Task: structure prediction
Amino acid sequence: MTALSMTAPRIAEPAETAAHSRLEARRRAFLNAANAAFLQKGYANTTLGDIIARSGGSRQTLYALFGGKQGLFEAIISEVNAELFRPLRADGQLDRAPDDVLVEIGTQFLQAVLAPDALGLFRLVLAEGPYMHALSARFWTLGPARTIAAFENYFAEQTRRGALKLADPRQAAQQFQGILLGTFHLQCLLGLREIPALEEIKVFVKTSVARFLDGSR
Result:
């Protein structure tokens, strides 16, 4: 009988770790520079030269990491969305009461979309989207569509478990996202009011979740 050989997991060398850290720092610098340039000049008017000048990186590294301006835009949207719904994918969330989970996630969601950079990004897409269909399509796919999908998956699982009673989890997800965005988001987009304080957001989300769940038990 031959003994099985066990291979110890490979430990990264210090030089590899340092190289990875440097590459991640360059990546972050490109993203920050692109976001600032897009908000200041608009997507169409921003050049790769603008982004390179702001970031201090090289064109070769930018292409290697993102492939170009569209890749940078997509990375910005994807990162915001991934961070937004990290708690919804956390272990144990499905076992907690939907009331608590949806209030937490709803508050985080509203805080995120009302942040100055997020509002700027929305304005950017609304202004340039009608003339750049590919830009608005990617924004929808990587942002709002993923938001709806995350809520849909959660609602579907809670319906399967019997915690909620929803005939169409996808429609419920669209409705819940619409409830959260509501007046706050539109007024802030239009510059008609200041970004609400956290306590105001919490009260709004808590009452919105309660009304939504009243029809979903």
